Amino acid sequence: MSLRKKLFSWIISLFLISIVLVMVIIASLFSTYKVEGLSMEPTLYNQERILVSKSSKDQNYYRGDIVVINGKENEKFIKRIIGIPGDKIEVKDDTLYINDIQQEERYLNNNRTDARGKDKLNGELQAVVIPKNKYFVMGDNRILSLDSRNGLGLIKQDHVIGKSKYVFYPFSEFRKIN
Fold first, then answer.
1. Which among 106, 105, 89, 109 has a CA at the least distance from the CA of 97?
2. Active-site residue identified among 39, 53, 56, 148
3. DSSP 8-state assignment for residue 144
4. Cross-strand pairs, 30
């Protein structure tokens, strides 16, 4: 075999090894999930695919983070963190209060308009203080969301898989998730 062929063979081998290494690193840091249902509209839409950072597993999560949660029997839920440990969460007259401060939830504006004349968005929720290592979560589409108010309860920190970062499919809807 000529030197040129050997060199070319080495370059191809290194290139393929590099691709596999990059894929392994990405798979260990990120996962993909499909949005199923309407509970996160208008932020995330049914059937969109999102990229989730698993590296945030050992980090703190903050109010407003959109996270993927392990549910029962391999169910996965995508919700927004509303309350972190130590927070007092209360809903009065369809308005969210965190630590007795009324919250402006801009991501709900469309849902508030759509909900006029229908069921209440948030309803009422007696004050609850979030204990250590737990989170209070809700979907952005409050009328259609199964969340900490009505079935999921408080979410244990170790049930949070990671933070959602990007919508990557459909490709025409590619965007960073804020």
1. 89
2. 39
3. G
4. 53
Please identify which of the residues 56, 79, 145, 163 carries the catalytic annotation. Answer: 79
CA pair distance 69, 111, nearest whole angstrom: 23
136: buried, middle or exposed (CB in 10 Å: 19+, 13-18, 0-12)?
Answer: buried
Can you give the pTM of this predicted structure? Answer: 0.80
* 39 is annotated as an active-site residue: yes
Report the distance separating Cα 78 and Cα 76, nearest Å. Answer: 7
Single-letter residue type at 108: L
Look at residue 34 and give its three-state secondary structure.
strand
Look up 79 and say whether it is catalytic.
yes
Per-residue pLDDT, averaged over 86-92, amounts to: 92
Nearest to 134 by CA among 158, 150, 151, 152: 158
Mean pLDDT of the chain: 86
Res. 91 pLDDT band, cuts 50 70 90: confident
Say how far residue 23 (Cα) sits from the centre of its chain: 22
Number of Cβ atoms within 10 Å of the Cβ of 75: 11
Query: Would you call 12 helix, strand, or coil by DSSP?
Result: helix
pLDDT at 117 over 50: no
- What CA–CA distance (Å, rounded) separates 138 from 79? 6
